[in-house]
Structures are given as C-alpha cells and as structure tokens.
Amino acid sequence: RFRATYRRLSTTLGFKERFSLTFFIVFGGALLGFCLSRLMMLAPSNVIHKTVAGEWYWYRQALYKPNIFMHIYMSIVGGTLASLQFIPIIRRKKMIIHRINGWIVFLTLGVGSVAGSIVARRAFGGDLNSETAYYTLGFMIGPSAMLGVFFARFRVNVALHREWMLRTVSYSASVITARFITIMARAIISAIGTYYAMWRCDEITFLLKDPQVIQESFPICVNATRPKRTFVPVHASIHQDPINFGSTYRITFGMTLWLAILIHLAGTELYINLTKSYARPVQAHRDSNSGGEKV
C-alpha cells in the first residue's frame, strides 16, 4: 500500500525517477520547514531578542541593520518559494507559474545573498573562518544562479538550466545544514570544556550591562581605556550564561559551514549525475518538438 501511494504521488507530481520524490520530500521539505520555522524573525523585535548573544551589538549599527533585515526577509521568501520550482508538474502544466516564481526566487535569493555578504563581516563575532566560508558560499551561489538563467533564456537548454538551479538552491541551503551540524559541534566542545572565544570589551559591556557582573567575570573590561581594542577569552559552553552560549557559535560556525558546503557540493553533483540519464534524453526530445522554446 505504501509503495502504491508513493508511486501515485510521484506520478501526480511529475517525478520520473523512483528516488526523486524522496529527495524532494527530504531536502525540499527541510528547506521549506526551516524557512517556515524562521517566520518569527519577520518581526523586528524577534531579530533583536532571538539572535545569538552578542550579535545585536553589530546588527543595530547603521551598516548592518538594514542588511540583516533584508537578508532575513529575502531569504525566507526565496527559500519558501524555491521548493515549488522543483515540482515537475508545475513546470510542464503551468509554465507561466514556473517562470514568474523562478524570477521571484532568483531576485530574492540574490538580494538576500548580497545583504548576507555585508552582514557576514560581523556574523558570529566576525571570525575569519566564518567570513571566508560565507564569501565562498556567495561566490558559489551567484554564478550558479546566473548560469541557470542563461541556460533558460539564451541557450534554451532545460537540462543545464535544471542542473544549475539545483546547484543554486542546494548551495543556498548549506547554511541550514551548518546549523544542524553546529548543534552537535556545540555540544561536543561544551563537553570537552577547554574551548574559548575572543570577545571585545565593548561587546561584553553591551551584552552584560550589569557593572557588578562585568567586574566579577571580566575585570579587565571595567577600566579598559580602549574597549574596542581590548579582547578577553570567554569560555564556550551551552550549559552556562548567554555569553558562553554565544562563544560556542563563534568557535564552531565557520567549521560547520565549510563542512556543509562540502556536503552540499558533493551531494548535488551526485544527484545530478544520477538523474542525468533521463534528463538529457527528455531535453533532446523536447527541443526537437518545441523548436527551442524559452523556459
């Protein structure tokens, strides 16, 4: 009964390979689920109070504030709509919906990526490891999206359009995988108990506010003449105060994002090669019948 239901649903949605629906449910569902779970961040007050400890010190500043909101809003909209682009029946029966939705996804993810690249300078403490991972991801997403549009509008190659848009969305979702990996990574380094992250004194005084707590925990910051250039180590642990919790993100996120990028890079190429056997013949047949209609 399960197999029959699965095949019926797969056929209804237009999937040709038996495992395509499974991949769509797992990965498309994860992307959609993550975006829906972040809808609460559309409220500005939640961005202030629910970001990782220490982040709002930077995000409230003139350069970063509009960009963090733009990044959040555009990424949620683009990520939510992106799943629809990979339902074959929509593309075959309602091409106009596929086109309009595709442009919305392209523009929102593009704007969100640019805004995110600006914010990346200070994300999770501005660690160089995190910065380079974010910028590398941005350079992967941008050209992939442009190639996807190129093969849809100018070279009219549906198979290559599909491949590059799969890469675009998969690379964009690397941040989601990184967040799952960092849950484990933060628990591990907390159990080890010997990891520390560097914080500036001005970040600490902004976050803690209570002079007595600062005096007891970070006395060097009390009389620091140059708080923006005075750094102190903060223990990384998910079992202590918010500042210690924030340290776990600063320690782990760059590493986890690099791992996620590699996972998505390898996984996407594997999927593309597994499905290429039917995508290319379908493309050749479609081109011969349609005379090269633009996607």
From TrEMBL:
Transmembrane segment boundaries: 21-41, 68-90, 102-120, 132-152, 173-198, 251-272
InterPro entries: DUF2306_membrane (IPR018750)
UniProt keyword terms in alphabetical order: Membrane, Transmembrane, Transmembrane helix
Superkingdom as given in the UniProt entry: Eukaryota
Key word Transmembrane helix present: yes
Keyword Transmembrane assigned: yes
Protein name, UniProt field: DUF2306 domain-containing protein
Native source organism of the sequence: Rhizoctonia solani
